[in-house]
Structures are given as structure tokens and as C-alpha cells.
Amino acid sequence: MGARDGPTLITSVQRAMRLLEAVGAHENGAPAKQLARETGLPLATAYHLLRTLVHDGYVRKLDDGGFVLGEKLQALRTTGRAQALLSRVRPALAALRDELAAPAYLTFFEEGEIRVAEIVDGPGTPRVDLWVGFEDAGHATALGKSVLRELDDEARRDYLSRHHLADLTPRTVTSPPELLRRLDAAPLAPAVTDLEEYALGTVCVAVPVYSGDTVGSLGVSLPAHRYSRLPEIRTRLLPTANRVTRGLSLTI
């Protein structure tokens, strides 16, 4: 039985991974012969694997014949770091969902856009139907408005110059001056609300979070009949936002 009971391993994948590890160990690159020797691979096998990895962008061949890690692998490393950061704060979002009986959302302002990074919901706490993407609805969501409230004047003007304030419901604010006035006069500051501005029958409240210098927002959505609980929910959101910011600020 023994070995037969273990997982089925694909030898070619293992060889490619060993080769990538060897390439990554040489900052200035290494030739195929050296990489084959370090990994114990036949030279012909190393050449075939390297050609495949170069073709798919995981390895790059230098003019001197050496091999270094490619841009696609660097992109995976960046994505992996973001996933690791989110894994740190996901338990806090899950605890918030359970405490408030409401789905929890996390967004970040990246490359001039407000983007959803994570949603933690459940069978009894379904998320809002995101029928309009956050990149086009920042003005109508508590999460988006929380981010806009934290931006400086120049960044706000830039964002509003690039985004049409679409009329999503009869309650949506579509005038940039009025939107800015309401952000600066938010009665629950630093929390910001969405009172059926994105979807009729739904209200939301959000507070700011940070990942280094990147501003984001943490919020929850509720049926409109729970409107009276928004001040209480704001009080519970703030300490969770502080925990999320601390978790995102740790160095990986």
C-alpha cells in the first residue's frame, strides 16, 4: 500500500518548480548548464523546461544566456502578498459579520479607482447585489464615499473629473459640489452612510482603513428598516477598522 496511498505527484511540475527555485537563487542570472547541475536535471530536460517557462513569462532569458525570474512570476508574488495581507484581516471581517448580522466589505483606493478587495457574507447575511461596479458607483456607496472623504482636495477633484455621478436611485447625489459638502458635514464622521443611494431598500455605513499609505474603507450593509442602528453600528465598526489597519500594516 504505502506509496500508493499517497498523493499523485506530477514529476514534470516538481522539476519545473525546482528549476524556478534555482533561477530565483541567482540575482544576476545563471546559465542552463549551471541550473541543470544545481537541480540534478538532465541538461536536455532543463533546456525544455526553461524554454517553456520563458515562453509563458515565468522566466526571462538574458542576452548573455543567463536566466532570471520573469515578470509573470513577479506579478504572482505581488498577488500572493496581497492575498496574505487579506488572510490576516479576514477573521476580523467574519467576526464583524457575525456580531452585526450583516455582510462586511473592504475596499481600497488603487490606481485612482475604488475597488472591492473582500466581501465576507453568509447564508443569513447575503451581500448587496453589486449591479453597478464600485469603480462607477463610489459616489453612491458608503464605502466609496468613505474613501473620497479621506482623499485630499486634488485627489478628489481628479476622481470626480473622471467619473460620472450616475443617478442610481432617486436618493443618489449626482452633484459634485453637493457630494463634497455632504462628505465634509457627515454627521457620523469619520463614518459615512449610504441611505438607499446605491440600492433601494439597503443602507450602509463605512469607516476608513489604511494599508500603509493606501486608503480604503470597511463597511456593512443592512436592510433599510435597520436604519436606526447606524450610530450603534458605527461605534462597533471603528475598533474593527483599527484592527484591520494594524493587520494590513504588518510587514510580510
Q: Which segments are poorly predicted (pLDDT under 50) over 5 or more consecutive residues?
A: none
Averaged pLDDT: 89
Percent of residues in helices comes to 40-55%
Q: What gap, in angstroms, lies between the N and C termini?
A: 41 Å
Identify the overall geometry: elongated
Tally of DSSP β-strands: 7
Q: Give the SSE order as H and E letters.
A: HHHEEHEEHHHEEEH
Biggest sheet strand line-up: 4-3-7-6-5
Give a short account of the largest sheet: 5 strands, antiparallel
By DSSP (H or I, 4+ residues per run), the number of helices equals 8
What portion of the residues fall into strands of 2 or more residues?
Answer: 15-25%
- How would you classify the helix and strand content by structural class? alpha+beta
> For the CA atoms, what is the radius of gyration?
24 Å
